[in-house]
Amino acid sequence: MNSIISPRGAAAPIPRRRLRAPRLLALTALVAPLAMAQTAVRIDLSKPGVPVSPTLYGLMTEEINYSYDGGLYAELVRNRAFKDDDKTPAHWSVVQDAGGSAAIALDQRYPVAATALTTSLRLDAARASQGHRVGIANAGYWGIPVKPNTRYRASFYAKTAGAGGVPLTVSIEGGDGKTVYAQAEGGRIDGEWKRYSVTLTTGAKVKPTADARLVIATESPGTVWFNQVSLFPPTYQDRPNGNRVDLMQKLVDMKPAFLRFPGGNYLEGETVATRFKWKETLGPIEQRPGHRGTWGYRSSDGMGLLEFLEWCEDMKAEPLLAVFAGYALHGETILGGPALQPFVQEALDEIEYVTGDVSTKWGAQRAKDGHPAPFKLRYVEIGNEDGFDKQKTYDGRYAQFHDAIKAKYPQLKLISTVNGKDWVGSQQKLTSRVPDLVDEHYYYNVMEMLNDAARYDSYERSGPKVFIGEWAAREGEPTTNLYSALADAAFMAGMERNADVVEMACYAPLLVNANPGGMQWKSDLIGYDVQSSYGSPSYHMQKMFRNYLGNVSLPVHAEKVSTQSWQRPASKETPLELPPVTQVPTMFFSATKSDQRGEIYLKVVNSIGSAQTVKVDLAGAARVAAEGKAIVLGSAQKEDTNTLAEPTKVVPVTSKASGLGKRFSYSFAPYSVTVLVLSTK
C-alpha cells in the first residue's frame, strides 16, 4: 500500500498511482431509482450454486498508522531502546523535583553485552539528594493508560558508574508528577549491566486517565545508564510480549479465516536493507535491533515473526505468509539468478520456521523461542505489488521463488502480486510460471467502488483464483463513514456472488491511531487512542458479512421492473417472470446458504437516501419460514460515522422479520446494509 492521494512528504512513502480506472456506469443511475419501477430479485435454489471458499474473509496487517508500536503491540514505552533518533533521546524527558538538577543524553559507549542494545540513555544525577528527586520519564504513545485494579510489568537494563549503588524507584504518575498511581522499588543499581523488573499495581479507586507517564527516579547522586525500558499492561491471553486486549478482541470478533502478514510496504522496506528481516525479529526482545519502517517512524520489531503467528493462533486464523522477493519500495531490485538466491533461501528458512518440526534447524529455533508445535500454512505470497518494478523483473524472480518453494513444499499455494485483471500490477505479466492465486489491490472513492462492484461478474474464469489482498472505499477519516461501508458492502456482495473466482479477500488498512500524528493513511477500519477503541461502520458491516456467510453462493438475478408489469403467478408454485429492463445500480445483492444451519442469507445494500422495496422470489425453494430476522446497519445520513467520542453511533440492529416466504416483498431502509436470515427448515 502506498499513498494514492497526496504527494510524498518527509514522513510518507512514495506516491502510488491510481490502482485502476474502473468501468463507469451512468452516475445518475447511482443516485436515483427509475421512475415507476421496483426491484425484483430471483434467487435460484434449483441450481447447485458454487462453493464459498472457507478462507474468503481475512485480515491484512502492516506497520502503518502506528498499528503495532503504539497500537496492537501492547508495549507502552515509546523509544524503549533509544534508537528513534540518532542525536536526541526522543520521547524522553528529565525529571527534576524540588530543586533537584539532572541531565540526560544518548550514549553509545556502553552496549549491553550479547544483545542488540547498543545505545543507552545516561542520567547525570550528581545533584540529586533527599527530597530532591531526579530521573527519566516517558509519556508513551500519546499517554500511558491508567486504569483501576491493573497490574503493569515494568523492566529495564541499568548500570551505574560507582560501586556504591544507586537506589531507584519506578512509578506511573500524572503528567505533572503530582499524582502517583502506582509505585515500586526498582532496586539498587550497581556497576554492571543487569535487567531489573517490577510490578506496578493501581488501586481500586484510581480514575482512568491517559495523562500519565512512566518515571524511573532516584534521590541519590550518581550517574546511571538505562537501556530497553519497557512497560506492559495486561495482554490478550496474558502473553508476556503480547497484544492489547481491546484491539485483539475486536479482531477476534471478526472471525477472520486468515491473517496476511507482515504487510505490504512493510515487507518490502524502503530499501532492501530496511525490509522486514524476519530472522532479526526472533528471540528475546533485547536481541531485536529494530528497523526503520516505511511510514516515517521506526519499528521496535517487538511484533516479530513468532508474534504474528501467535496472533493468528489467538484468532484461530491461518497465517498467509508474504515473503520478500527482491523488490523494495523505492525501486531497488535484486535481479534473478545468483544475487537473488540468498533471498530465496531466506524464504525457505522462513517457511521451515513456520511449519518445520523440531528436527529441522528452523523448527528447532521456533521451539527454542517457545512454540514447539508447528503452525498450519497453506498460502505464501511472493513479494508485494511487484507490478511497480519499473525494470519488470518479477517474472524471473517469481519463477525462481516458485520453483524452489514448490520443490520443497509442493502442497503450498503460491500467490503472485502481478497478473491480476485491470489493475496496475497487470502491466507486468507472468509467462514462466502459473501462480495458484493473483493478488489484486483496489483503493477507490465511494462512487468508483459502487461503479465497480460487479467487476468479478465478468471476470475470466479459466485463470488463477483471485486474492483481493488490499481494498477499501475511502471516505471519512481517521476511519471510514457509513457511505464507505455501503460501497464496501456492495463490493463484498460481488465477492460472494463470484465465489468461484474470489478465494480470499482482506481490507486495508486495518488499524489507525487516532491521535494527531498517528495517522499516515486516511480511511481505516478500526480507530483507537491509548485508552479506548472503536470499529468503523465498515468494521461492523464486515462482521455481518462474516457471521452470516453460508457454504454455497446462490445464483442471484436482480432487475428493475415496472410496477405495472409485476404479475403475481396464478399458482404460488409457478416461477415469477421478470421482464428484463435494466441493471439496478442503486441496490446490490448476494445470497448464500448454510446447509448445516438450514438458512439462506440474503444481503442487500441500499446506497441511496430513500427506502426501496424489493420483490424476492426464492425459485425452487421447498420451504421458507414466514419469520426470520433482519440485521441492519444504517443511519439517517450517509456521512454518519463512529468516533472515539461516539463509538456506537452506527452499529447493526437485529430485529424479527415477518411476512417472509418463498415469495415476499421487503422494504430496505435508506443508506443501509441488511442481512435477511431466512430459515428453510
Topology:
Blueprint: E1 37-44, E2 50-51, E3 57-60, E4 92-96, E5 103-107, E6 120-124, E7 134-138, E8 151-160, E9 166-174, E10 180-189, E11 194-201, E12 212-218, E13 223-232, H1 245-253, E14 258-261, H2 265-268, E15 291-292, E16 298-299, H3 305-315, E17 318-323, H4 341-355, H5 361-368, E18 379-382, H6 394-408, E19 413-416, E20 437-444, H7 446-451, E21 465-473, H8 482-497, E22 502-507, E23 511-513, E24 526-528, E25 533-535, H9 537-547, E26 552-553, E27 556-562, E28 587-594, E29 599-606, E30 612-619, E31 628-634, E32 653-657, E33 663-668, E34 672-679
Parallel strand pairs: 1-30, 3-14, 3-22, 14-17, 17-18, 18-19, 19-20, 20-21, 21-22, 23-24
Antiparallel strand pairs: 1-27, 2-26, 4-7, 5-6, 6-13, 7-12, 8-11, 8-13, 9-10, 9-12, 15-16, 24-25, 26-28, 28-29, 29-34, 30-33, 31-32, 31-34
Characterization of the model:
This protein has 681 residues and is of the alpha/beta class. It folds into three domains: 31-49 and 552-625 and 660-679, Golgi alpha-mannosidase II (Immunoglobulin-like), CATH 2.60.40.1180; 57-73 and 237-547, Glycosidases (TIM Barrel, Alpha-Beta Barrel), CATH 3.20.20; 92-232, Jelly Rolls, CATH 2.60.120. Helix content is 14%, strand content 30%. The longest helix is centred in the last third of the chain and has 16 residues, at 482-497.
Features:
disordered N terminus; alpha/beta; 681 residues; Immunoglobulin-like; Jelly Rolls; TIM Barrel; globular
